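User: Watch each token:
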Amino acid sequence: MGGYAPGRELDGLAAAARAALVRRIEASGVWAADPGWREAFAAVPRHLFVPYYYVGVAGGHERRWGESADPGARERWMRGAYEDTPLATRLRDGELLSSSSQPSLMADMLAALGVAEGHTVLEIGAGTGYNAALLAHRLGDDKVTTVDLDPEITESARRHLAAAGYHPVVVTGDGARGVPERAPFDRIIATCALSGVPTAWITQSRPGGRILMPLATGLIVLTVTAAGHAEGRFLHTPAYFVPLRGPGRPGGEPVQLGGVPRRAREDDLFRFLLALTRGSLDPQEAHALWEQEGRPQRERYGITVTGERGEWAWLDDPEGPYAWPLPS
């Protein structure tokens, strides 16, 4: 790659910055029920997974690079690697293709995944490899599989993982199809946004398995039953992820919000309801429901998936009056 290779002069800064990040996340209480994740975040060096990243500046993006010849630039790169913020790691024509998620959000997701010793995990969206490293540190390399459609992403994830001393299975393929040759899985976690639950993830889950995925600016946690059905509720946490790439992934035109009060248009919870009911409720209907039901938090919503009836989102009760089909 050329340039200046960062040496041991940054080791102390890396250790101090990582410890500070762990303290910030721990203060939220996310690890109270499962302190094992604290040790993983304290041990896995995030900077090895982001040898360069992009930060927004006026007129575009600025690249921060660990091999810069400028000592000040190297220090800014290292400090930024341990900020509790998402880091853009791959851009194409100004479009974000891949990123390293916000560490505190990763901690929320991993805690909600509910792993135990011996569990096998499939990660959808390899990203930088950092999340797979945290999983591998906790469960062991042989228990973790991560998949991504882009061979450049999977190749760089392998390099980063190897540099940090981890060797989970990294697969290049369509994440919506899962990884059948490695199934069944106890847990499936997606780090990219979807508009529905892929059938393959349910069929590749063990009965009692858990699927955690971003959907409609939220995080849904589904439990899979022996009959191949799945059901669960959203976490309270807002979540905005790069969409899953691949053929046939839905996009859609921006929603027109004419007639909806500005206060609602700018409210994160209302926009969550809009995203969840897209194609089923127009914005005015969604606003009327939102006000009538007391501007519900994300935890009041859920999703049910069955082979017979398809999949639908709901408010409060899967068999209640407020239910909306999800895209197949």
Remarks:
- The longest helix spans residues 11-27.
- The radius of gyration is 20 Å.
- Residues 196 and 327 are 6 Å apart (CA to CA).
